Amino acid sequence: MTPAHEAPRSPENLLQTLGLTEANPVLDEIARDLATRAGAPYGMVNVFTADGTQFFAGLHADSDVPQIGRTMPGDHGYCPEVAHRQRALVLHDVYMHPRFRGNPVVDSIGIRTYAGVPLIDPGSGQVFGTVCFVGPVALPEDTSTANLELLKEVRARLMGLLYPQADTRAPQH
């Protein structure tokens, strides 16, 4: 993964410069670590391609849950909402939120909890992806703050790998 310093750039150039156009074992490990620490069966480092598809450059799914591929339509899941709002989204129980309970991933793999934060290019301010975890069991509401802090920590580690020369400590929501 090489640092990216020029801005602005097209989504495909950004992803290519950051080395996020194909599956990456380092990012798979970050996704596994996130899922393990969150107590969730799925962890992802998700990027948005130029055609609007979501690509999981880092992916972990426990062996006892439905397996998913590395791509997903751009309107499925909750990461597009995180990208749109450019802020974290922590849903300890998606059924508690009428807007989110009808999402296709609820039906296809039984998602009941979601937590994700945006990945923002520090040079351009462009959201290029998310770091998230999902699971089939609702979590207690009092876990939301701890899960948000975990996501921010993992995002900071990831951004340090993607942008080793940049100061990525600026607040990202």
Describe this structure in words.
This protein has six helices and six strands. The protein has a single domain, classed as GAF domain (Beta-Lactamase, 2-Layer Sandwich), CATH 3.30.450.40. It has 173 residues and is an alpha+beta fold.
Q: Say what the CATH topology is.
A: Beta-Lactamase
Low-confidence parts lasting 5 or more residues at pLDDT below 50?
1-7
- Structural class assignment: alpha+beta
- What is the N-to-C order of secondary-structure elements (H for helix, E for strand)? HHEEEHEHHEEH
Overall shape: globular
Tell me the fraction of residues in β-strands, as a range.
Answer: 15-25%
Précis, in short:
Helices cover 34% and strands 21% of the residues.
From the structure above, extract its key features.
single chain, 173 residues, alpha+beta, six-stranded antiparallel beta sheet, 6 helices, 6 strands, 21% strand, disordered N terminus
Question: What's the layout of helices and strands?
Answer:
Layout: H1 11-18, H2 25-38, E1 42-48, E2 54-61, E3 71-72, H3 79-85, E4 89-91, H4 98-101, H5 104-109, E5 113-120, E6 127-135, H6 144-162
Antiparallel strand pairs: 1-2, 1-6, 2-3, 4-5, 5-6
